Amino acid sequence: MKISRSVLVFVLIGLCSGCASHSSKMIGKLQDKNPQFATAACQNARQNAGVHDEVQNAKLWVGPSVLLLAGPLAIVPVFLSGVGLNTMDQMQANEIAKNCGGTAVSQQAVAQSVAVDSALSLGLGVAVPVPTVPAAGAR
Q1: pTM for this structure?
Q2: Which of 18, 30, 41, 111 would be 99's cystine partner, CB 3.0–4.6 Å?
């Protein structure tokens, strides 16, 4: 059972390793014929989006690795760091939309997207078999 669960996790990680950040997806939705697209603010916002792609890919490996090394105690910090990184990516995507003539999403839509992304990240992290720590009385 543990082997099949590990195989499933690695397959999911492999499938998701090419996932783009919300910032990159927003850049893909922009119209380059819009006059705001050529402004300095837009160019700066688009250049900063690459960081979120790297973070997205690193997060897929770091979260499960930390859970394997630190055990169940690391679930909360891994989850909260994922929430923070997802929120920053969504905020950057909205900034790109505002500066480049796109349509920014509402705060409610951002919150829903962060919740879904964080739940998926937590689900993927929990699927990894973590080492168990023996209870104090079990020794």
Answers
A1: 0.69
A2: 41
